[in-house]
Design a protein that fits this description.
Helix content is 68%, strand content 0%. By secondary structure, it is mostly helical. It has one domain. Helix 3 packs across helix 6.
């Protein structure tokens, strides 16, 4: 996405806030509240990355909650409980550097998002980025 000339180069502080919001989405939420209380407007670059980080965190929470509920319900089926336990064990067992397969996949995903911030571009996440761009239409 190309921004107007005055928005093309985000400052180091904006990049830092965007990076921190991908690592800790609560920071992005706090920045939104502070800018709203100060009645200031965020630059499109920062707004895009903060909203995307919050949306990804919420979507991840929904997926994890849904999978936990599904695993708990499926575990009551005789014979399936053992398979569910084995799959859960292997996905969550630390393999390298203390990271499980799931944690390592999330780490790689966050590094991809951070790389997009450092390149001054929008990190594209299918479906999520489209929703963020549609909701911020006219502001980006």
């Amino acid at each position: 996405m190309s921004y107007p000339l005055k928005y093309r180069t985000p400052s180091a502080a904006e990049k830092l806030i965007a990076i921190l919001s991908y690592i800790f989405p609560l920071i992005g939420f706090v920045v939104i509240i502070i800018t709203a209380l100060m009645r200031k407007d965020m630059k499109p670059f920062l707004k895009y990355h903060i909203f995307q980080s919050i949306f990804i965190a919420f979507a991840l929470w929904l997926v994890i909650s849904g999978l936990t509920l599904a695993m708990n319900l499926i575990s009551y089926i005789p014979g399936v409980k053992n398979i569910v336990s084995i799959v859960t064990f292997f996905l969550n067992t630390p393999l390298f550097f203390g990271f499980s397969v799931v944690t390592f996949a999330y780490l790689v995903f966050v590094l991809y998002l951070i790389l997009g911030v450092l390149r001054n571009s929008d990190s594209y996440v299918p479906w999520v980025s489209n929703i963020i761009k549609a909701n911020l239409r006219g502001q980006l």
